[in-house]
Fold this sequence. Notes:
Layout: H1 2-18, E1 24-31, E2 33-35, E3 38-48, E4 67-76, E5 88-95, H2 117-122, E6 143-148, E7 155-157, E8 161-164, E9 169-177, E10 186-194, H3 205-231, H4 238-267, H5 272-297, H6 311-333, H7 342-376, H8 380-412, H9 425-445, H10 458-465, H11 467-470, H12 481-484, H13 500-508
Antiparallel strand pairs: 1-10, 2-3, 3-9, 4-7, 4-8, 4-10, 5-6, 5-9
Amino acid sequence: MSSFSSLSALSLLFVWFLCTEASVHNYDGEVFVSKGNAFVVHGGSEGIYYSVPNQNESGESANGDSYIRFEKIIFRRPKEFSNFSTGLVQAIVFEVDDRETVGGSAYGGQRAVCCTPDLAKLGVCTQGEIIHRPSTKNVGWPKVFGVAFTENELVAALQPKSIQITKTGMYNLYFIHCDPNLKQLIVEGKTIWKNPTGYLPGRMAPLMNFYGFMSFAFVILGFFWFGQYARFWREVLPLQNCMTLVITLGMFEMTLWYFEYAQFNKGGVRPTGITIWAVTFGTVKRTVARLIILMVSMGYGVVRPTLGGLTSKVMMLGGTFFLASEVLELVENVGAVNDLSGKARLFLVLPVAILDAFFILWIFTSLSSTLNKLQARRMMAKLDIYRKFTNALGVAVVVSVGWTCYELYFKSSDVYNEKWQSAWIIPAFWQVLSFSLLCVICALWAPSQNSMRYAFSEEASEEFDKDDTLTLIKPSPILSKDIRSTPESRSVPGSNGVSKDGLEEDKTE
């Protein structure tokens, strides 16, 4: 237990240092890295909905405006590299549809971001600056501005600026310089990205309403379940107590996610405390739900009182799944708004996917064994509910596989996040699917006056546990009706054992 706690603490510490603040993008000494012939810092990418143009571009924007605002952006270089003046250190903001307007090449050669001598000779750009052309789709875009260092100057400050967003799209911000002598340059400050309805990024904004709806759905499910629980509390099974825990965790999870998004939308920064609690409640709920399904598949509480020697293995699988899922969810949600890189996400998703596959394999293997034994012992009431349970799980698995394939297609075909307005459907679907499966299970196992029909009983358990042993013993042959019939049974009633031939002989005499 102590080692598990230590791992959890380390994962939280790791996330704390990894995460960045969301719609308020802070730059705390970000270092420029080499990309081709340019040196780049990615300032952010967000989907933003348009607002009515504001004539006062540099002034304070109203609450209903969409904008990207630069505040206290400075570039800092070390003293040993400050004895010369430089070209511009530039910021460029462009909508994803205009990505081809940034960069270029001379005579069809390798594409470059910074203007090369050959391109400068053609008069299409200024050497040492970003190559960009006016957009044909969005007048006045991309937005490019910058600042230069003078000799012996350590800090260059970018003038505060607010860019009005008048077209809905996925916007990208990069800080770029083209001077190879400008080494160890860093950027500090922040940018604020805002939608008309608040600070939530465009692809996350629909999730706030979604989690509000899911909170209401869990309340309705809770009313039904707790009502049945109160009416038939004397008939409640241990399994139903576990399901009560899952419903309660789901209520807390959905409510916390709603308030997390509402606070994020209001202040522009994801509230770390609420996010961690929402992630943790959700991870505990998913872990407990998987363990319940696995234990039900093994017949716990219905045909056997305990899991016996499998208890430690089940708990170990659950603990490992919780830890892997908790780290993944914390890294993806705490303070983050930009997608993780492919390799980083794959490193965290892969263990969770493997554990999920192991859960599914173990569940259906156990279900198959339990169904066979219930059918052999003719426990028809329990067999019926287990068949419905198996069908529900089968449908959920098939739908999950289909949606996973669609998700892979969606992400592989949307390299530049052009479908950001519908991206919220991906995580929302998983919530709807898990809630639907929970509703089906609640309908099957709801507390009722007949709950004890499905409860464990000593007599049934003895036969259930001995089933494998009894199949090894060859049963004695069962005589057919014809073979069991004796000559006496074929004699004429009332003849007292005298045959029909004997009676005829008496008549002859």
